[in-house]
Amino acid sequence: MTPEILLAADQKSAEVTDWAARVGWVVGLLLFVALVYWLMREGWKWRGTLQGDLPELPTAPSAPGAARLTMTGRYHGSTTAGQWLDRIVAHGLGTRSRVELTLADAGLDVVRPGASDFFIPVGALREAVLGKGIAGKVLTEGGLLVVTWEHGGRLIDSGFRSDHAAEHGAWVDAINSMINKSETEGAR
After folding, report:
1. Among 56, 140, 159, 173, which residue carries the largest CB count within 10 Å?
2. Half-sphere exposure of residue 164: CA atoms within 13 angstroms, side-chain side
3. Pair 178, 125: CB distance under 8 Å
4. Which domain CATH number covers 122?
5. What distance in Å separates the CA atoms of residue 130 and residue 110, rounded to the nearest whole number?
6. Residue 116: inside a domain, yes or no?
7. How many domains does the chain have?
8. Is residue 28 part of a domain?
């Protein structure tokens, strides 16, 4: 026999798949993802515990007055004022959701289907501006209505995006004029 024939007879093809190693890697990856998810959840709960000194959110009065403006859109979250990445999660303020905003004489009513509603009295409103980001959500310049308000001795920024972004300017003007009017009346 020639050496080529002997060489060909001795060769064996390798196994195509090592199933034990593959299953081990998949299980290990799934355990790692579960661990990361669990750590993120614990961090969220810990942040809520640290913010436990924030009092319960006010609810809308029975007669808030005539609606000046209404808007539907998205609530993107609340942060410590001026710190757009310091999300507040206590009392459900960190939960993104759909939103229905109503600006009335008594203040700003925030109705969130699937999340806790809250009310910002006109005396707690501090400022409304057009922003581009809050709590890790970045949009185009002016794509976010950011309302600054005071609650429990803390200044809070809450970010809203209308289904029709052209409405944001009217909201900024209306909220800021309400703030100026209440400050002028309070000075008398």
Report:
1. 159
2. 9
3. yes
4. 2.30.29.30
5. 18
6. yes
7. 1
8. no
Per DSSP, the three-state class of 104 is strand
Give the helix/strand (H/E) hosting 131: strand 125-131
Burial of residue 139 (CB within 10 Å: 0-12, 13-18, 19+) is: middle
Residue of 175, 50, 51, 165 whose CA lies nearest to 108: 175
- What is the per-residue pLDDT across 47-82, written as a single tens digit (0 to 9) for each? 777 787 888 988 888 888 888 999 999 999 999 988
What per-residue confidence (pLDDT) applies to 73?
Answer: 94
Low-confidence ranges of the chain (pLDDT < 70): 1-16, 182-188
CA angle at 139 for the pair 109 and 93, rounded to the nearest 5°: 35
In a domain, 23, yes or no: no
Give domain status of residue 2, yes or no. Answer: no
pTM (2 d.p.): 0.75
CA pair distance 29, 69, nearest whole angstrom: 50
Greatest pairwise CA separation for the chain in angstroms: 115
Residue in the structure block whose two tokens are 């009335």? 104
Nearest to 60 by CA among 116, 114, 98: 116
Tokens of 184: 């002028």
The reported pLDDT for the residue numbered 186 is 60
Q: Which domain holds residue 88?
A: 67-187
Asked if residue 138 lies in contact with residue 132, where contact means CB atoms within 8 angstroms, the answer is yes
pLDDT at 181: 78
